[in-house]
Amino acid sequence: MAQIIVVTSGKGGVGKTTSSAAIATGLALEGHKTVVIDFDIGLRNLDLIMGCERRVVYDFVNVINGEANLNQALIKDKRSNNLFILPASQTRDKDALTKEGVGKVLEDLSKDFEYIICDSPAGIEQGAMMSLYYADIAIITTNPEVSSVRDSDRILGMLQSKSRRAEQNLEPIQEYLLLTRYSPKRVTTGEMLSVEDVEEILAIELVGVIPESQAVLKASNSGTPVILDNESDAGKAYSDTVERLLGNNVPLRFLEEEKKGLLKRIFGS
Amino acid sequence: MLESNLELKGSSFTLSVLHIKSAELQKIRIELEEKLAIAPQFFLGAPLVLNLAAVAEQDINLSELKQILIEQGLVIVGVTSGSESQLSAAKDLGLAVIKPGKTVESKFINAPKSTQIVKKNIRSGQQIYAKNADLIVVGTVSNGAEVIADGSIHIYGTLRGKAMAGATGDNNAVIIAHRMESELISIAGQYWLAENLAEHDTDKACCIRLADESLLFEPLTF
Ligand SMILES: Nc1ncnc2c1ncn2[C@@H]1O[C@H](COP(=O)(O)OP(=O)(O)O)[C@@H](O)[C@H]1O
Ligand SMILES: [Mg+2]
């Protein structure tokens, strides 16, 4: 049976798609057969981040509606044999994602894959609810600011009441906190919440801290998940996160402001 | 054979009764707004019966009264104990005329009080109501969450959301939290906002109770 992982947040623009792409790629690189699904019907940007937008023929909604089968819609990643993408449609309305339809697709994928990553849209509407409904694990993607933390808290409430595991009284969804766009400098100046602040408010296990990084924009412009940029701090932080998801104990990094060297301090950066 | 699309079955429901004590609708509107602001969502959607006994001798515009109540999010299903003409006016408004029932006098004194224990964090958007009971939360109550009890409320984590104890009027109810950063707390309708709490040392375990109609802060030290 596959593990179904939802990457969710409530709030938009916090880094869900960036994280879904990175984590799916990381799991595949570790040898696990993984599929990543775009639940953001109408926006569709997972395929851009994964660099496969030109190979989209059929999509998730086509499969649900029986207009294409999974093999026709799944796109094989060009970098890893273990990784597949199920893209969202750009046009159809969000109500196309029915509980039965999504359930059937996930059940079929579960036969072939070890991990199914669900990239959730923002908000708490149909698409977001469907992406979390069948989850075994939730990665609560949160930026270190009050409004994002509040929305994450709201989503945690949904996981506890509106998911399949909640409705059927099964073992609850495993909840992990992924702090993204973390800027130690802005924490020092008091503009942002610290890791400890967010952990204290949300009270769930921390699985990773991804620093704010230029590398992310560069990676998405070139259609390469940032985890493949193993020179970058964001790439390394995502690799660490994947290790922790797989149960390995890796210390956190990039929590402190980088010390500027003497030359940089004199000449500016 | 034709299958029936309808089936009539007898069932009994508990309805809350709202006693209308004045025919001055503006006063009712204002008081209701105040009450609902203190315990938001508490009555929302719950079916209510209007008891008109106190205004049976007076001229009251039922249609306007109904409108005021609906605007506040209340659901009116019927009226009881009015004059002949009031009851027939109610019928014309599509309301049921209900025979007066037995009133349960001051439940919090007579009814045996129970305890409801919740072992999890209460998240934003969630609401817990411990009816006829004390509420114990082994966890934290987030901003945007609401905990309500007819009895007392004990929180073993941090209280950040709203807490309303003594919701049916029990003056002896208390609110105790390991740490209080609440948006609003109230006991039997008396309330404090975050700014009132900020005047006290709420970083440590503390208790809020009611003394002579106003709330009182007590640190929990021995
Ligand atoms: N760690 C990061 N550092 C800098 N920019 C980031 C980081 N994570 C995400 N972003 C940027 O934030 C924006 C939103 O990211 P995205 O993953 O699309 O969020 P979501 O899917 O939650 O809406 C994008 O422009 C992305 O490049
Ligand atoms: Mg997205």
Automatic annotation (TrEMBL), chain A:
GO terms for cellular component: cytoplasmic side of plasma membrane; cytosol. Keywords: ATP-binding, Cell cycle, Cell division, Nucleotide-binding, Septation. It comes from the Bacteria. The keyword Nucleotide-binding applies. Residues 3-170 form the AAA domain. InterPro entries: AAA_dom (IPR025669), MinD (IPR010223), MinD_FleN (IPR025501), P-loop_NTPase (IPR027417), ParA/MinD_ATPase (IPR050625). The keyword Nucleotide-binding applies. GO terms for biological process: division septum assembly; negative regulation of cell division. ATP binds at K11, G12, G13, V14, G15, K16, T17, T18. One of its GO terms (molecular function) is ATP binding. Belongs to the ParA family. MinD subfamily. PANTHER family: SEPTUM SITE-DETERMINING PROTEIN MIND HOMOLOG, CHLOROPLASTIC, SEPTUM SITE-DETERMINING PROTEIN MIND HOMOLOG, CHLOROPLASTIC-RELATED. ATPase required for the correct placement of the division site. Cell division inhibitors MinC and MinD act in concert to form an inhibitor capable of blocking formation of the polar Z ring septums. Rapidly oscillates between the poles of the cell to destabilize FtsZ filaments that have formed before they mature into polar Z rings. Interacts with MinC and FtsZ. This is Septum site-determining protein MinD. The lineage of its organism: Bacteria, Pseudomonadati, Pseudomonadota, Gammaproteobacteria, Alteromonadales.
UniProtKB/TrEMBL annotation, chain B:
It comes from the Bacteria. Signal peptide: none annotated. Cell division inhibitor that blocks the formation of polar Z ring septums. Rapidly oscillates between the poles of the cell to destabilize FtsZ filaments that have formed before they mature into polar Z rings. Prevents FtsZ polymerization. One of its GO terms (biological process) is regulation of cell septum assembly. This is Probable septum site-determining protein MinC. NCBIfam families: minC. The keyword Hydrolase does not apply. The gene is minC. InterPro entries: CAP/MinC_C, MinC, MinC_C_sf, MinC_N, Septum_form_inhib_MinC_C. Keywords: Cell cycle, Cell division, Septation. Interacts with MinD and FtsZ. Residues 6-76 form the Septum formation inhibitor MinC N-terminal domain. Residues 117-217 form the Septum formation inhibitor MinC C-terminal domain. The keyword Cell division applies. Belongs to the MinC family. Transmembrane segments: none annotated. It holds the Pfam family MinC_N.
